[in-house]
Amino acid sequence: MATDPTRSIRAHDHPSVFDYPADALLDHLANLPSQYEVPYLTVTLDWSVDGDNPGRSAAPETKRSQPAGESGTERPSLRAFEQEMNRLIEAHGPRGEAFDALQRSKERISSWLRDELDPSARGVYIVAHEPSGVLDATGLNLPIETSVSLSVEPRLYSLVRIVEDYPTYAVLQIDQQDATLSFITHGARDRSVKLESTLFPRKQSSGGLNQKRYRRRAEERMEAFARDTIVETEKALAEAGVDVLILAGNDVMISVVRNELPDHLAGVIVDHIRMEPTVAPHEKVEMTIPIAEAAERRREQASVDALRNAIGGGALGVAGPHEVLRALQNGQVETLILCDTFEGSGWADYEMHVFGVNDVPAVHPTGGDTSKLVAVDLRDELVRLALSTGAEVDIIHSSVPVEATGVPAAGELPKSDAAAELVEMGGVGAILRYAITAG
Q: Under CATH, which architecture does the 6-15+166-279 domain have?
């Protein structure tokens, strides 16, 4: 039997335009102190060239050292940013702390975009607050809607949606010569583990018995190499906390791997795809993201099913903005489940930790200072409260692929089953850690 089928195992980290660990960045932003006098500036930019928004297409293999303006291309969002910043500065002028802070923020952000942003970025997310020295800026591997806003707390929904919509998945690409396990995060490869085969036996012997012996030894070598690959794959998946795996390669090795997989690992494989060994990293992302998206839509349906069961089974599930907001204030929420079409207005007194739905009340509900009551985007506030209390956030996609429904007729676009069910519940729900009972 072939022994020692693997020549080498090497791990690689790949540069990413995302400058922070996503969970750490969201936790940091969700727990920043409220700023009433000089609000936070939240900037999101679609950094696509000439207005081209390719959706889920991966970032090109641009080197981090390449100058940002080397190609001489236009960024429509940069013009939009400058125009909106000029409008905000003028609205807060001609002098004062907010006026000065916005001017400095515009200068610092412009400098960061020019000198520090990775040129392969497709999107930009920035939170700035000059008086406290905050400038949290990162590139994104995927486009994001352009906006510039001021608020007492950073606006987090758009960043959470990028992070939550494209969670990390793994692609195991294998042939008889080598295997590469790639982790795809937010639309780009960030880590990989490569195994190289010894290719033993290398030469085919002629003759009947020799031919059979050679073929059997070659099969044993492939099986042994597949087992080595599976062991390393299982270790890497456990270390990364990833439970979505796509097999890629030729039919022979995919079949060998499937035959060698233990049952507990077979359950994380969502699909397989033919892939040539020479495929470029960004092509690998383009080929596999639709598969990962389909797996994410199935997981979203399971999440909505769990919410419905929690509501129907007792007091560990709530739905609708009023009930969910109350549970978030109490710290009860384990998972916030939000439809991507949800919209709503609300209000907050961050100093008293009091929140509500609809317009800002004329009288403070708890007898506090009415000047501390501010209007908020309810979607952003639900997400911020969830993150600040350690809850998970699950955003449910409403869109249905055109190929699944055909070209829609004029009128409202079809919704996914999960989104339609959640909309019936008010567009937002929460699975709770514990119930509060009257007594």
A: 2-Layer Sandwich (3.30)
